[in-house]
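Appendix C reproduces, verbatim, an entry submitted by the partner laboratory led by Prof. M.T., so that reviewers can inspect both the input and the predicted structure.
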Amino acid sequence: TVFKNTKFGEDIPIVPISALTNSNNNDNNDDIKTLFRNVLCCIDFQSNLTTNNKEHFLAFVDHCFSIKNKGTIITSTIIKGNIKPKDEVYFPELSEKKQVKEMQMFKKPVQYAAKGDRVGMLIKDLDSSKIERSIITSPNSGMVTYCQGGLFLVKKIRLFKTELLSHSKLYLMIGNHTTPDAVAYFIANGV
């Protein structure tokens, strides 16, 4: 009932975890495993997705440039769904919706593109200086959400020779989007 009058409502899952070591085996491996299991169980992966018959659009943008008096061209690879001129696309990084004016594949105009296609899209009123490598989706798909932090299970591979230290910066890449991030590690040997 503590959260009852907040925007989160009163049915909030609470995941118990302690920074103290597990008294049974002098390390916190079991606590860390339990944390990950409980957090994943609490996430409703479908809650942000709208329901309709059309598969949501998702594309990785690899280049963006302006053409004077025309608009902005984005080149991309479609990962999911399909697109056609006059469809709206959403730029999660910018929190903006824009309409596709024209499309081309290999310098030929097209009226439709689907999963696996490389496509250039002409977008009006998009500032090309604000976007380069990124992700675009169909509006209201809920597929991409930007956040301030995350919890990840990581394993160091033997070829990565740099020491992994908390509060160091690493580059996190999801799809075509890369960002420098500060990391903090929970030690869990053998996970």
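The chain has a mean pLDDT of 79. Additional entries are available on request from the coordinating office.
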